[in-house]
Amino acid sequence: MPTIARGEAQRFRLIGRERGYHGVNFGGMAVGGLQANKRMFGPGVAGVDHIRHTHDPARNSFSRGQPAQGAEFAEELERLCALHDPSTIAAVIVEPVAGSAGVLVPPKGYLERLREICTRHGILLIFDEVITGFGRLGYPFASQRFGVTPDLFTTAKGLTNGTVPMGAVFARDALYEAFMRGHDGIELFHGYTYSGHPLGCAAGIGTLETYHDEGLLTRAQSLEKYWEDAAHSLKDARHVVDVRNCGLIGAIELEPRPGAPGRRAYEAFVKAFESGLLIRVTGDIIALSPPLIIEKPQIDRLFEGIREALQALP
To answer: Which pTM value belongs to this model?
Structure first.
């Protein structure tokens, strides 16, 4: 842990967020906030707590970009600081935009407030940018889009265009230097058999070159308004109760079928697939994150197809 490297071994506690997703290893499930992922695996990692999620459809339904209401949800962190003693909290980890929970866009001022609280109490702020990194929000990383700099942020997927497994962690200079001083002469005490694998590194280098050559890290900026308008054109579509978007991410939330949560979205997935469209559903939410090379006619085709699929559902 970077806190131990900095001489703060008393900081052992981790804070995640409800409806957060950080992978399905024991550490990721512990700080994650998806109950279904934890159900079969017992108590997991000790010393973990969670702040509430930011989804507030009563005030923010059909928001375009960042919702206007909800910055105060960051104050949950102050409550946990009072409960646990902030000197015992090592880090807070959140997705800048929650992905697997159904595209939950941070309210205006929310990430800024988390940053302020973490800084005041000496807590590390970690962004999970596995989904938001590498151009998804029209900037190389979400921290740049929102103007909030974390202490650490994790990346993967887009690093190699999803072709070969590879991940990376970015760290502030001060944390890097703390690691380089080492523990018993070893800079980073833990490593993996496949760390720095040549195939993954080659895929990563090739992907970064393509991002640069084709301008893909910022291309979403030129499409975001068109994407937003296309997504919100489904506001009057059958079964739709919310639409939200940020960069080239979107979510169409459907009214659950009584007694069968998730069933309506799954049937929409099947209908769309039969018409030649591949969408993703999570619960009763259609979650969309198209290729960064998507063109406007393909955006039109996507949302027309979703409308047709929804119209066909009971």
So the answer is: 0.94
Tell which phi-psi region holds residue 257, choosing left (phi > 0), alpha (psi between -120 and 50) or beta.
beta
| CA–CA–CA angle 251, 56, 78 (5° rounding) | 120
Other CB atoms within a 10 A radius of the CB of residue 269 amount to: 17
Contact (CB, 8 A) for 140 and 159: no
Q: Rounded to whole angstroms, how far apart are CA atoms 295 and 234?
A: 19
Please name the residue ranges forming H helices in 104-188.
110-121, 142-146, 173-181
Taking only the tens place, the pLDDT of each residue in 160-205 is: 999 999 999 999 999 988 888 766 667 777 778 888 899 999 999 9
If one counts every other C-beta atom within 10 angstroms of the C-beta of residue 214, the result is 11
Tell me the CA distances in angstroms from 186 to 20, 137, 172, 174, 178, one per residue in order. Answer: 32, 37, 19, 17, 12
pLDDT tens sequence across 93-130: 999 999 999 999 999 999 999 999 999 999 999 999 99
Identify the DSSP state of 106: P
* Alpha-helix runs per DSSP H in 133-194: 142-146, 173-181
Residue 284 structure tokens: 């009763």
